[in-house]
Amino acid sequence: MIARTENIMVLSMGLERYRKKRDFSSTPEPKGGKTKKDIFCVQKHDATNLHYDFRLKVGSVLKSWAVPKGPSMDPSVKRLAIPTEDHPVDYAGFEGIIPEGEYGGGTVMLWDKGSFTNVSEKDGKKLSLKEAYEKGHISVDLDGERLKGVFALVRTGMDHNWLLIKKDDKHASKKDILKKSKSVKSGKTLKQIEKDAS
Ligand code: MN
Fold it and tell me: Residue 13: is its pLDDT beyond 70?
């Protein structure tokens, strides 16, 4: 019941939660932003635990999931995706250092970015992205620099976590995409981003 209430809050609150968690006089993270484009991004985030953040524009914000093991191009692999607070669309270009003591303190690398096409449907009927999000079953055709082809994000019944799964298409591959360890923005590794900032 608590998880369900939380989910409804995430749907309705927009960026309030994002802003409440941050001190913008301290963190270089963006406050807002606007775009009409259907964009997504993936950040590699060296916080308490290294993880990847998958963000997809739904409505006026980036819906966000922390993916501990990162995305996979292998359709037989299901990656846990834990929903986190909505982020502003300008976050899709963010790379840098979140100061220690701030929420999410650590180094953030822009690991992938690009556009997407919503291909969500149910019983042969097309669903808007918002409908698909609310139903907990999104299908998007990604056109990133690294992630390409159709991915599904599926909410699981038990604990309201989601799974990120590659669909079997011409982009599917057993190759480990996470071996690409440099930023699509700066060409730097996490270590180099950290070093250049200090
Ligand atoms: Mn994160």
Answer: no
